[in-house]
Amino acid sequence: QVRLVESGGGLVQAGGSLRLSCAASGRTDSRYDMGWYRQAPGKERDIVGRIIWSGGNTDYADSVEGRFTISRDNAKNTVYLQMNSLKPEDTAIYYCKFTTWGGENYWGRGTQVTVSS
To answer: Distance (Å, rounded) from C-alpha 77 to C-alpha 71?
Structure first.
């Protein structure tokens, strides 16, 4: 089992920045990658980006490329999502996902990000 705890959401004005954190505990040795997803009201949950844990490679959705950055802290078993130049359309609940080498997925409970215009 893997437990994920997200933090760092909140209310910010357009153009501002926020940093989300996701701390993993439990069987973290099974980790393949960790990712961030978001779900706006009335919409499906979409990927924001992810990081391959072993090599640190990242990839991002086109909508956030160049504005958002995913990083990790191995010692803390934590992944971060630095969000800059935020737009109202970035408003959503942001979820952390942990994927194992065996293809199992674990999700955090989510953290709300609201960007005001």
So the answer is: 11
